[in-house]
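Hypothesis: this fold can be encoded by more than one sequence.
Test: take the structure tokens below, design a sequence, compare later.
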């Protein structure tokens, strides 16, 4: 379905200047920003648990590596 010039202008105005052609990239950037924040949260939380002796180093390492691999996996399939 073709988009008219007025619809394109309305969309660009509503999205603070983001044109329709690059909107999917904007969604991906937002998604990966949230994903990277989640990975940082996982690593910091596991680090704190390891330093307080609640988990051993192997658990810290595996949980951190698992979150990084999930990020790489999603990046491979979404980009």
């Amino acid at each position: 379905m073709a988009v008219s010039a007025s619809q394109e202008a309305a969309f660009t105005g509503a999205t603070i200047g983001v044109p329709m052609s690059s909107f999917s990239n904007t969604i991906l950037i937002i998604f990966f920003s949230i994903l990277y924040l989640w990975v940082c949260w996982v690593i910091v939380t596991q680090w704190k648990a390891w330093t307080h002796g609640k988990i051993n180093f192997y658990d810290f390492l595996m949980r951190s590596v698992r979150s990084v691999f999930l990020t790489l996996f999603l990046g491979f399939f979404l980009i």
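The helical segments are 5-14, 23-51, 57-78. The chain has a mean pLDDT of 91.
Hypothesis status: open.
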